[in-house]
Inverse folding.
């Protein structure tokens, strides 16, 4: 499967409203689905007037989910929450994500979406070396998807949950840009058995 991303537009709001209303999404996102709420929370990003990106995820060209990406420095309150729990290198980004339909869950889609966005971030944001993600501890499928996509848990502690029914305990996950290949590799190797 190929995963690509494009900026969310107002034409996508009805689709997004349906996704946000689905029980498997509503449980964790706890988001209003009225046209006014969607305009309030997604309109400025759709116009490019918000520093974050709301990205429609396409699987082989068909919409399957939403991902949000932002630089923590653009959101001081969120940055402070992360800094209370872990080191936040300059330029660090964070992401959030949802799979729109429950029929697409438990199939590795979340892991694949996350991995694709991380790879795309390394390509399009050369100044970003770290991505941090905070996940409420009770959302095991979400943090397991991060682990399968190469993230490592670096901290745990209280943060404001999206859904007030959740405990404040969050796990913080981190992935760093892969190191550039070293150019000092020896020109010949011995004992490899290769000829």
């Amino acid at each position: 499967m190929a995963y690509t991303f494009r900026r969310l537009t107002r034409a996508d709001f009805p689709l997004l409203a349906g996704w946000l209303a689905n029980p498997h999404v509503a449980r964790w996102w706890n988001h209003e689905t009225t046209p006014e709420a969607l305009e309030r929370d997604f309109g400025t990003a759709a116009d490019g007037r918000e520093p974050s990106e709301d990205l429609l995820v396409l699987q082989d060209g068909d919409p399957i989910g939403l991902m949000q990406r932002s630089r923590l420095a653009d959101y001081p309150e969120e940055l402070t929450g992360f800094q209370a729990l872990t080191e936040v290198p300059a330029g660090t980004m964070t992401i959030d994500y949802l799979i729109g339909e429950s029929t697409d869950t438990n199939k590795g889609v979340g892991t694949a979406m996350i991995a694709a966005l991380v790879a795309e971030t390394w390509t399009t944001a050369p100044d970003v070396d770290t991505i941090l993600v905070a996940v409420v501890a009770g959302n095991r499928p979400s943090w397991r998807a991060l682990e399968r996509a190469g993230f490592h848990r670096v901290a745990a502690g209280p943060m404001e949950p999206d859904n007030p029914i959740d405990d404040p305990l969050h796990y913080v996950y981190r992935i760093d840009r892969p190191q550039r290949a070293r150019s000092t590799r020896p020109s010949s190797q011995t004992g490899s058995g290769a000829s």
